[in-house]
Structure formats: C-alpha cells, structure tokens
C-alpha cells in the first residue's frame, strides 16, 4: 500500500512572520505519526539574508521524559529552514526544508514522511556514546 505523505498549507511570503513560521512548524509536527510519550519544544534560531532569498532557521528538540527521569538522558533535534525567495512573487508560499541533527540529508515535508525511528536512532546513538565514555 502507498503511504500518504502529510503536509500543511504553508503561508505566503507576504504573510510570513517569525512567529507564523514557528506556528506552522508546530502544525507540521502535529501531522507526524509520533508516540505521545515524545515531547518537544521549538524555537527560532536566526534569520539569514542571502542574495536571492531570506532563510529563517528553527529547531525542534525532542526527548522522552519519564517519572523516574524527568530530564531525558539525551535529546534529538530537528532543524528547519523556511525560505522566502526574492525572485518569486510575494504571493508564493514559503519553501520548507528540515534535517536531523545527525545528518546532512535535507528533506522536504511534501516529499518525505517523518519517521519516529529517526529520533530513536539519534538518542540511542548518543546514549551508546555516553556509555562508552
């Protein structure tokens, strides 16, 4: 069976604000099939002005707190970039990309469905590394 990729309708360049960007990232995250034990917070990191576009950088930091360990031993971050083209009309939607902290592979929400396993792998690798130290 074909897996349906969930996405959201992104705001236009003219309606974009830093806070709208964060809210839309939260909206995208809400479409991901992730167990409720995972908690995250998202934050705006910086704005980057380039010749043909503006880029807005965000981070969502994930962990699984428990009663015995309310502060997780390790966390996993997902980095988002919202791009506003200076070449396209301001009525065009923003472009969105994300990558995992352990990877240089850049993904687009409309082309790739997020997998909970990616977060688990990052955390398991960090804990294994900590255990070796």
Automatic annotation (TrEMBL):
<protein>
    <submittedName>
        <fullName>AKA14 protein</fullName>
    </submittedName>
</protein>
<dbReference type="GO" id="GO:0034237">
    <property type="term" value="F:protein kinase A regulatory subunit binding"/>
</dbReference>
<dbReference type="GO" id="GO:0005952">
    <property type="term" value="C:cAMP-dependent protein kinase complex"/>
</dbReference>
<dbReference type="Pfam" id="PF14469">
    <property type="entry name" value="AKAP28"/>
</dbReference>
<dbReference type="InterPro" id="IPR025663">
    <property type="entry name" value="AKAP_28"/>
</dbReference>
<dbReference type="InterPro" id="IPR053084">
    <property type="entry name" value="AKAP"/>
</dbReference>
